Amino acid sequence: MNIHEIFENLIEIQSIFKTIGQHQLTIDEENKRLIFLKCQEKIKLQEKNEIDAQIICYKKELDELEIKCFNGEKNIEKSKLALAAANSKFHMETATNQLKLFQENYQSDSQSLFLAMEKIENSTPGQSEISQFLKNFNATFLEIESEVKLVVLREDNIIAELKKRAESVLDNCPDQIQHLFKGLLKNYKNPLIFVGLEANASCQGCFQRFERSTLEMVHSKKAVQTCPGCGRILIPHNN
Ligand SMILES: [Zn+2]
């Protein structure tokens, strides 16, 4: 294999990697759709939990107020009987005051009871709206999830094929080039740097400026050269 073929192979491998990156991006985007939907669901579930907890509180309050009103009614009845049975001015005054107090309490408890009922009534539409949303959401999510799974499967297969192709192209290269390239891949996504002949040319990977002698060596195409700064493979680029 001559040096031109080595360059061609390496460039092909890097371009395959670029394509793999694009397919990986598609997978990431698809997965992001699911993550976004899951976030939306989480927010709605939190809202639902808050409303549910609030309604439980209102119902407890309502139960307590019902008992209070029930007892209040009994107290009023009792005070009315006491008033009817009062046989002195003092007893009458006491019974009247007592009745007045019970009536005031009853009125205030009844108002609170009415408010509690109203609060429950006002919370219910929100609760059923969210329940409906979550029900619809589950169906939509499952649909989108199966779409995403199909795309991811398709992309994974394409990536596997591309990886195989890249491997087979690399297998054709001399052992030392394979070794060098694989070593660079551990650190760099793009192990190749294209180098022109202009005087101020520098490595696009590590930004080190090349010596004139390095540039000439690269463009003489006698052997594969690497960047003195980062070790990436230098490919002569005519521009
Ligand atoms: Zn470099």
- Count every beta strand, where a strand is a DSSP E run of 2 or more residues: 3
Number of domains: 2
Chain-averaged pLDDT: 95
Describe the sheet with the most strands: 3 strands, mixed
Gyration radius, in Å:
41 Å
Strand content: under 5%
Q: How far apart, in Å, are the first and last alpha carbons?
A: 25 Å
For the record, the CATH class of the largest domain is Mainly Alpha
Q: Helix count, per DSSP? A: 4
Low-confidence stretches: none
Widest beta sheet: strand line-up: 1-3-2
Write the layout of secondary structure elements.
Layout: H1 3-85, H2 89-171, H3 175-187, E1 192-195, H4 212-220, E2 225-226, E3 233-236
Parallel strand pairs: 1-3
Antiparallel strand pairs: 2-3
The protein binds zinc ion (ZN).
Zinc ion (ZN) binds near residues 203, 205, 227, 229 and 230.
